[in-house]
Amino acid sequence: MDCHCVVMMEYKGVFLELLEFHRDKHPDVEKAILRHAPKNDMMIFPTTQKEIMDACAKETIKTIINDLDGDYFGILVDESKDISHKEQMVLVLRYVNKNGEVIERFLGVVHVKDTYAQLLKDAIYFLLLANSLSSSKIRGQSYDGASNMQGKINGLKTSILQDAPSAYYIHYFSHQLQLTLVALSKRHSDVNNFFDVVTNLLNTIGASFKRRELLRQCQVEKLEELLKMEKFISGKD
Predict the structure, then answer these.
(1) β-pairing, 73-81 with 168-171?
(2) Which of the pair, 73 or 114, is modelled with greater confidence?
(3) Where do the DUF4371 domain residues begin and end (predicted)?
(4) pTM for the structure as a whole
(5) Rounded distance between C-alpha atoms, residue 43 and residue 52, angstroms
């Protein structure tokens, strides 16, 4: 059995791995959890795990809202398809706290049926309202350069400006940098050829489960070889 399979068999999921990590770091906690906990109160059933994670998320967001303290804020929004090809929208708050520090905090992710500006706006307002935040407090909005985001007529930027005239729009600086790097790389033949090869390689391997499994097997063999030659340090060292 290769090391990849062994690792996958030993992995117990994020919740249990985190619980065991916490147990190993705090001996007093070990006395009350997992095998030392009452059989009817081990809190490892999947539904219970989800409830605990939801409670942690709510407490985290509550702390963020308290830190914001009803002040003005900006929003950063992006959308992308997940592994199941469902469109997901992410909302991040950007604000200045009481210490004068610029803070960015993840507020939530929500599934959207499409990327039309109105649907994205409804999803943003839903997340804000769910956390007792008013759209009238928005003083900045930042997205990528897609037409559905920055369109002057039907774009998300324009739609939100109609509700909050002071919500000034800024194109992501990171996205601007990405566009600049792409433009520069296309002018350099070696770099352009490199990315063409990588793109073709990803498309070729990604289209076949057998090819992906073969690549994983090759990576495992290469890793084992490096470990034997002591040119690679494992996490256990």
Answers:
(1) unpaired
(2) 73
(3) 11-155
(4) 0.66
(5) 9
Q: Where are the domains of the chain?
A: 11-43, 61-171, 187-223
Tokens of 28: 């007093």
For 97-131, what is each residue's pLDDT tens digit? 999 999 999 999 888 888 888 889 999 999 999 99
Check whether domain 61-171 has CATH 2.40.160.40, yes or no: no
Q: Which residues, 6+ apart, have CB-to-CB distance to 88 below 8 Å?
A: 79, 80, 81, 82, 109, 110, 111, 112
Q: How many whole angstroms separate alpha carbon 139 and alpha carbon 94?
A: 10
Distance from C-alpha of 138 to C-alpha of 88, rounded to nearest angstrom: 22
Contacts of 141 (CB under 8 A, 6+ apart): 74, 75, 76, 77, 156, 157, 160, 167, 168, 169, 170
Question: Cα–Cα distances in Å, from 91 out to 76, 78, 117?
Answer: 6, 7, 14
Q: pLDDT tier at 12 (50, 70, 90 boundaries)?
A: low
